[in-house]
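In the laboratory, one determines a bound structure by crystallizing the protein with its ligand and collecting diffraction data. In a computational setting the workflow is compressed into a single prediction: the sequence and the ligand go in, and a structural description comes out. We illustrate the idea with zinc ion.
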Amino acid sequence: MKLTILGSSSALPTSERYPSAHVLNAHERLYLIDCGEGTQMQLRRNRIRISGINHIFISHLHGDHVFGLYGLLSTFNLMNRKQPLNLYTPGNYKNILLSHLKDFDINLNFELVFTDLAGRDLIEILDDKYITVSAFPLEHRVPTFGFIFREKPTDRKMLKESIDIYNIPISAIQRIKKGDDYITEAGDIIKNELITINPPEPLSFAYCSDTKYFKRMASFVKDVDLLYHEATFESSQERLAAATGHSTSVQAATVAKDAGAGELLIGHFSARYKDISLLVEEARTVFPETVGAVDGKTYEVKAF
Ligand SMILES: [Zn+2]
Ligand SMILES: [Zn+2]
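The predicted complex, in structure-token form:
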């Protein structure tokens, strides 16, 4: 899995940073997470295949996370998209969006499939071939949700030489990869661990923006390999962060530390920071494996 940052600014874009938008590529399937203004230009600039997007996750209904959706839907229509598009959104956005599209005289030639995000617990919202996605509530000024993307465990890997050594027929390989022992024609049992090796550990990525700090968050994102967490402000602005429903860099790092995350990527920076190195340095005092998001940069999700 790898994550491309399309926008790492908070509500005010800057000349260097667009509002929130991110693409997760998992096994060459694209998952768009938030869709701030300028998302489609950023997709093009970063050579991301727009038509490959079939799932869009909107964390909350603030403009810096959703205003780009109108342009993107309109472009899909002009590209004569036929494939249904899955939208995961809070606040009964379905009625709002459908009414806006009608007002703008946009008749989509493809279906929108809505999943309404609600509740106070972690809930699974997508289960496809390679990954599952769950949503969990954040604490912001309007209903807001974070997302956790988890790779599904893959089959065990066959040791190639064992196929020759034990004369294993192709018809038996599928079951062996699922964990079965191999029974030879003579009736001998060849233990699975002799002929296979463990598959790579499934990777996970979590997205938390926008939110103020709250203790329970760490339990939602426990042991995640890569955590994206907003860090709108520096730690001296903790009161402003709490009042506006945002987090400081140190609070983001505290979540990463408490969750036992592998790596922390901070973003959603206030436009007041021309240089975000202060935010990154502050976060590193609590959680050393912190990096600051840069628009257009791709971050590999790595096992830790
Ligand atoms: Zn925001
Ligand atoms: Zn917001």
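The mean pLDDT is 96. Keep in mind that any predicted model is a hypothesis to be tested, not a measurement.
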